[in-house]
Amino acid sequence: MSGTVRWGVLATGGIATTFAEDLRSMPDTEVVAVASRTDASAQAFAERFGIPRAYGSWAALAADDEVDVVYVATPHSAHREAAALCLEAGKHVLCEKAFTLNAREADELVKLARDRGLFLMEAMWTYCNPVIRRMTELVRDGAIGEIRTVQADFGLAGPFGPEHRLRDRALGGGALLDLGVYPVSFAQLLLGEPDRVQADAVLSPEGVDLHTAMLLGWSEAGASALLNCSLVADTPQTAAVTGTKGRIEFPRGFFYPERFVLHRPGREPEEFTAGSAGGAGTGGLRGMQFEQAEVVRALRAGETESPLVPLDGSLAVMRTLDAVRDRIGVRYAADGITQE
Prior knowledge:
With about 350 residues, the chain is an alpha/beta fold. The chain has helices at about 15-25, 40-50, 60, 80-90, 105-115, 125-130, 130-140, 175-190, 290-300, 310-330; strands at about 5-10, 30-35, 55, 70, 90-95, 120, 145-155, 195-205, 210-220, 225-230, 240-245, 245-250, 260-265, 270-275. Strands 8-9-10-7-11-12-13-14 form an eight-stranded mixed β-sheet, with helices on one face. The chain has a six-stranded parallel β-sheet with strand order 3-2-1-4-5-6, with helices on both faces. It is globular and about 60 Å long.
């Protein structure tokens, strides 16, 4: 693919707005179409961002021959339907996280993309962040020795009423899929898929998790991760990785970090930032632009998945999220299991 990469945006909520705002200043890219379930919503979004075509149906966007890649920004409950619709129409897809409601749906999307030879990526912007990439380089090079523990949390105080989408089980509500996906993805970026999963949660009357604590274990690596997510508590939103020779600490906002500190015995703490001499530069990018740039790079290289956000990694995260939900008793209609 050469020339301008033409994006379609499917859905018009807050995350789609942020995506469109960040894409405005990306070189050689543009949003050429937007779709919503209603014409009014699509038209309002198009007018706000100067998008030439607005559709009141997802199918119309998927059928637009002038769209190269679609950003799926619906609630997770619709990710499988929306992404599959676009893939079946021959469109490349960037799909928001959590990738789907469960691992079965995620596997269906991955198989469809691979069968069609199309690009598919979960929008795990954290993995594309240059500070996170620098951290993984240091860990891989042995800067902190062998990993023993990972700690990460993401909680919001709310309040989120029963009518809010985060409390709506039909929309895949709960802390785990919306917020917990970040700590889980952070741990699995470093250690891969765990072989032990323990969890405890407080559930809402609607049957979604308001707060979930997870303990993941990796027997072969001799490592464990303590992770938390919450819709009822403003947690520190920090992360730390401890190894046999040191530790790495991220301040608040670890899932979109601007810096981290490396601590090693007998040495002064070392701070790494996106623009530091020892780190990867930002190239002037911000926020979602890192994942947008990775999609564009992959498409122009003819790749069908990103090495930064590999599909097998996204599937592994979904399997862990499924295991956590099994432990805490959260079920969705897509699971095919009736919740008591």
